[in-house]
Write a structure and sequence with these properties.
The chain is mainly alpha-helical and 72 residues long. Helices cover 47% and strands 0% of the residues. Helix 1 runs antiparallel to helix 3.
Amino acid sequence: MLGSGGLRAVRTDDLKAILRAVHRGELPCPITQTGLATTGLLRLGDDLELLRDLDARAVKAVLVGVLSERRS
């Protein structure tokens, strides 16, 4: 994902919603446009390219790391 802005464009509340949805099994991984649409997060599709090919465990790890960084 060379040249990507990572997850900077995604609001903290949206990252929390994604983490919650993945944790509850409501958003299957790898994340797809269909999964995002089902959970009401389709508007974030382009901004989540970094997470696209990751399994649920990896998505959770990335999101927890990003959210931890934002708290400090």
